[in-house]
Each structure stands twice: as C-alpha cells, then as structure tokens.
Amino acid sequence: MKEDFKEEIEKVISKMTLDDKIAMIHGAHLFQNGSVDHLNIPPLTMSDGPMGVRADFEPDKWMPAQHASDEVTYLPCNSALASTWNRSLARDMGSVLGEENRGRGKDISLAPGINIKRTPLCGRNFEYFSEDPYITGELASEFVKGLQEWDVAACVKHFALNNQETQRLEVDVDVDEEVLRRIYLRAFHKVLKDGGAYSVMGAYNKFRGDYCNENPFLLTKVLRDEWKWDGAVISDWGGVHNTDKAAVSDLDLEMSVRDNFDDYVMAKPLKKMVQKGKIDESYIDKKVYHLLLLMYRLNMMEGFVRKCGSYNTPMHRQIALDVAREGVILLKNDNKTLPLKRDKLRKILVIGENGDRIHSNAGGSAEIKALYEITPLMGLRSHIGGNCKIDYAEGYTSRFRADEPSAFEDGGTNWQRLDAIRKAAEANWQEASLENGGGKTQSVIKVDKKLSKLRAKLREEALSMAKDPSYEQVIFIGGINHDFDSEGIDRINMDIPYEQNELIEELLKIRPDLVVVMVAGSPLNMTPWADKVGTLIWTYYNGIEGGNALADVILGNVNPSGKLAETIGHDLSDYGSHVLARFPEPETAHYTEGFKVGYRFNDTDNVEPLFPFGYGLSYTSFEYSDPKLSLDDKGNKVITVSIKNIGKVSGFETVQVYARREGAEVFQELAGFEKVYLRAGEERSVDIAIELDTETELSKSFNKSVKYAIGSSSRDIRLTI
C-alpha cells in the first residue's frame, strides 16, 4: 500500500467538527457518503459491479437515472474468471473494472465477491470464485491489484460467511474457528494483505450472535488486531442495526437502502450519544481516519493528481473476450466431435433459449447495462454465417406466462424470485406469491395454464427440425439464468428447469452426436443424460463477448483451457454441506461438515463427483514427468515438473499441486498451480510455488512430512513427490 499519510490525516481531523465527522461515516445518498465542503473533503462515490460498473441510480431513490451514457463493458462473472486459472487475466480484468469505474466517476467498486461456494445452491455463487480458498485468494488478489491501479478502491465482500441467500439478513452462522480461518477467512486475508485491498464490505448475516457489520471478533480481533489491516470497513446496505455496537466496532461507514439518511444508525443517533458522553468521540475519529486514509490512497484529496479512466474501449472488450475464451470448459468430447470442421459446414441447427438470451440485465446488484452482449447464436453466425446457414429453435421457454415474457403483472424486473414461484410454475398453478429475502410479499404471479402447451409446442418444433438430415450438426444451448442465479435467493435443488432434460434426451435419440452447452452460475444435475451425451461444454455467464468465445472454442479457433474451480456433483449427495450438514437453515446455519467443503469432501470420503475440481479437457494432451522439490532463496518450497504437449495442436495446461498429509482432516488441499502454454510437441519445465499458508496450517497439528500430488485435476494425479 501507499504511505500512511498519518500526519496529514491527523491535521485534517483536528479541524473537523463533530457534525463533519458524523457526515463522513454514513450515507448521504444511496451510493455516497457525506462531504465536508469547508475542508475540501469530497464524498466517496460507490458502485455495484463485480461484472461491470452498474448503471446509475437516482441519488435518493432506487430508480434508474436513465442516463444515456452509462452503458459499460459487461465482464465475465467471477466464476468464469476462476475457470481460467490465469492470474494475469485476473489482473487484466480487475484493471478493466478499475478504469471503467474511474471513467464513470466512481471511487469505490463494490467488488470482488470472494465468499466460498459452500453449496451449489447459493444464488450468488456466480459472483464468487471457487469452493477453494487458495485459488480464490490467488486470483482475487490479482484482480484487486489491477482494479486499484486506477485510483479506485476495491471493496472486497462479504466479510464473512455469507454463503447462503436464504434469510441472509438474519441467519447466524455456527462454525468451528479453525474451519472459519482455514476455509472461510483465508481468501480474505490473502486479498486484504497481499492484494492490498483498500476496503472491505461486511456481510448481512450474524456470526456468534452479532451481525457481521458490528462484529467485534471479525472486525476488531481478526481484521485490526491480528491482520493489522488499516483499510476502510463499509457496511452492506442496511446491514447495521445497533448504534451502541456500531459505534465501538471497527465499522467505518454505514450505507443503507433507505432515504432517511440523517436517521441512519451512525448518523443523528450516534451524534446524540457522543454529545451525551455515552460514546467517546475517539471512536468516531478512528472511523474518519480510515476513510480519509482511503481517500489519500486514491489521490482524492486537494493537490493530488488522480488518474482519469475511460470505459467501453476496444482493449476492454478484448480483455473480456480473452477471459471468456479461457473460461469455457470442455467437459466431454468422447467422439472428438469438436472442434467442428468449419470448412465443411453448410447447415447447423441451434436449439435452446440460452442460445439467444442475454444475461447482463439481471442477477441483483450484479446486473449491468451492457454496451452490447453477444449471444451464442450471434457468435456462431458472425463466425461462419457467410458460408453456413444457422437455424434456431427456442426449444423451451423460461417464461411463466405463455403470452408475456415478464413474470410480473406490472412488467417489473424480476431478480428475487423465490422457490414458491418456481414450484408454482412447474405445477402449473394459478398463482404464487413473490417474496424477498425477508419474507415480504412483493407481487402475485399468475401462471398461464397455456404454459405447458407452449413448452410442448416449442419442444416439438425443435425435435422436428432436428430430424432434418441436412443439418451437419445440432447444438443444444441450455442451463439456467438469473431467475435462479441471483442475489436474494437460493435454489431449492440442482435440477435443470423448464423441461430441458426431456428435450435433451429426445434430441440424443435423434442426434447421438448432439453437442450440449450448459450455461449457468453454479452446478446442475446433469445425470439424466450425462452418460449419453458425447460432447458437453460448460460455460458461466461469460460477459459481453461470451458468444464469440463459445464460437471460437466450438470451431477450434481457440483450444479450450478452462478448468472447474468447483466440483460438479451428480446431485446434492456429492456435497459435504448437504450430506454432513443441513442446507438451508434459516435461523442458525451449522457448518457441521467442517473442512469437507467441495472437493475436500469428495476426495476425503471417496465420493466420486460427476466432474471433479480442477477438471477440463483440451483438444490436445499433455505428459507429466521428472518432478523435483527444491527451496527458493527465501526458503519456500518450489515444485518443478516437466510438461510436454504430445498432441497436434498448441494449447494451455494448468498444472495443479495438492498437499497431502496422512491423518489430516482432509485428504488433500490445493497448494499451488501454474498455467503454461505449449506448442504442439513442445516440452517445458514448470515451477510451481507452494502456498505457505497451506504448509503452515497443515503443520499446526501434524509433524509428518507433506507429500505433493501433481496433476491435471484433483482426480487426475500424474505424479507424486
């Protein structure tokens, strides 16, 4: 981090009145705190946006400002970024977000989200990186470095344990402290200390009975005392509840969803307590100090020169495309159907709503007003449309009424659809209530009885077209969307909705060579047809250029290199949070699975997933040999391994190292990785630095030596040392 500016800040604080200080530590608008004009202290302007800078809102109400100039580069979601396993791309993507925030006049980007994917059902999983804290910390740290290069602060969220959306405003989390530190806090430590993040956002939920935004253990003991972190702590919007607790906590800035700004917990109520002598003003000074330090670091204060930024540049779109390309994961290619031979293609059929659906305009606070978004159908047509006729059949619909695309009677935006709505639609009920995370009814959905007939019609149309032998290839593009992957809701199961399984199975009878593409923000139950399909691609919400990236992989312009940063199970029985614990738990969430999160459960309890952590195929093959263990100049362990591309095309391989210790709580943990590009026939020696935290933590309880497993995934181990 930059110098601490201690003398300058103390001088400024000495000139401030109590009113000045109070103004700075709570929201004065929905996305701004208060300014102190007579001291030339500007407000801090914030924006949502893990996938891009969010469109502007009116200052005092939750209504879009309807500006004509706030379209931005729609970035791949963090799950897609994690699938690249590419630190350099993570930094590049962070830089895009930082530069576009500056171009839009923002000071703090409320990103990235780095909560651990404890369960595949969490509605915000697409915003997070992984089930593993090591890869999360590695990539998010680079993301933050890139973002903050533009004099914009990253606000890393949600600290901590925001692993479910069900009752997120109230749920208390019960977790063993060692599990807390090794699984759920480890990435935060990495990103705040090594990544140098300037701010962090507190979570809505409770830990040990105290709300995270007022939590003495998390904010004071861990953040300030143990980690010695001096950045700014910002509340999630509406996440502060008690003036007494908030005042003496290490929370620095209260933001909320209400427009009665002077009545916020840390506004007039706190001022009165200070004036009555119930709260010492030194607590307020400390909060102001952290906010001023943040502003100095961003070059916001008078006399400092700050970077300008820009948005929607060609370079930004190129980086979005690069990330999207490396984030596409090839799960099956049994018959070498891919890549398609484009010179021989004359007619293709694309089936599935996700083939021509945009995803940027939904998902809760992650929604983006994108400059544009290339769908898969658009991508294929732009690549080969000149010589190949590409037809499209919707095949299924996510609509809840047969005659209207919106699920709302008033046509409003749907981003907090609850399970009741999905159940109602599937059961073809007459109506169902829409509730938000707090249980308040928002609207009533009338599910058209014609819906099932519409779906049947779309399915039959698609099947009829698929029977046409003139199509050289049929591609199904399905999955889910932000009706399921969204802030404020969790899924009720892993099932693929909208009767897609039936459609896929029928298509496979007609076209055994069917290429299936699943688009989603978290794992789906693909077992009804997974063993029947020969070619399967997985892609997350892949940003402004997602359709072009998918086309590049399908056509062989890009050799796929994406690998799963989470486990795809057959069903919920492949996840420790559902076998060894209960999910969701609305009042107190008991993390009784302990360390057995994600692949740690599968590998320790010998539960074979559908597709394991770290898995992803390529159009080429790689050979591993000659592992060596050494120490660098600082005494840190380094594993060196020889990797050879034994195929006929160039491509990336991600070499993964897992630490194993007999008698440990889990069988193995990711301890290092490197992504390397090799031309066909090329052989190269790759050095993988071993994560020190893993080494230290594993050594706390066990004295035996660590063994290292080296491979292409957690279940594809090629060498041990």
Largest sheet geometry: 6 strands, mixed
CATH topology of the domain at 314-588: Rossmann fold
Radius of gyration, CA atoms, in whole angstroms: 26 Å
End-to-end separation = 37 Å
* Beta content: 15-25%
Q: Which class best fits the helix and strand makeup?
A: alpha/beta
Helix content: 25-40%
Q: What CATH architecture label of the domain at 314-588 applies? A: 3-Layer(aba) Sandwich
- Morphology call: globular
Instruction: Record the strand order, biggest sheet.
Output: 11-18-17-16-12-13
Q: Count of helical segments?
A: 20
Counted beta strands: 26
Question: Mean pLDDT, nearest integer?
Answer: 92
CATH class membership of the domain at 314-588: Alpha Beta
Say which CATH homologous superfamily of the domain at 314-588 is assigned.
Glycoside hydrolase family 3 C-terminal domain
Low-pLDDT residue intervals, each spanning 5 or more residues: 406-445, 694-699
Give a verbal description of the structure.
With 721 residues, the protein is of the alpha/beta class. Among the domains are: 1-43 and 214-297, Alpha-Beta Barrel (TIM Barrel), CATH 3.20.20; 314-588, Rossmann fold; 620-720, Immunoglobulin-like (Sandwich), CATH 2.60.40. It is 28% helix and 19% strand. The protein has a six-stranded mixed sheet, sandwiched between helices. A five-stranded parallel sheet has the order 3-4-5-7-10. The protein has a four-stranded mixed sheet with strand order 9-8-6-19, with no helix packed on it. The longest helix has 17 residues, at 87-103. 55% of the residues are buried.
